[in-house]
Specification:
This protein is an alpha+beta fold. The protein has one domain. It is built from two helices and two strands, in the order βααβ. It has a two-stranded parallel ribbon with strand order 1-2. Helix 1 (11-22) crosses helix 2 (42-49). The longest helix has 12 residues, at 11-22.
């Protein structure tokens, strides 16, 4: 298998995955617009919920893949 290969994922796709997971508990992830839009971290939430795998990397994210 290819070591160190990452698969890009858009923020919209990640939010859709998170919302599908949260729908089971009648919850939903909402994002803010404007200067306060960086209050949440959908990438960390996605990893906690198990919808974002180790080899997937959020496009435009400041974080680095797991090494």
């Amino acid at each position: 298998m290819n070591e160190g290969v990452t698969v890009p994922l858009t923020l919209r796709a990640l939010i859709q995955r998170i919302n599908r997971k949260l729908r089971q508990d009648d919850q939903r992830l909402r994002t803010a617009r404007g200067w306060f839009s960086d209050l949440g971290h959908p990438e960390a939430r996605g990893r906690d919920l198990g919808v974002l795998k180790d080899y997937e990397l959020l496009l435009g994210s400041w974080s680095y893949p797991n090494t």
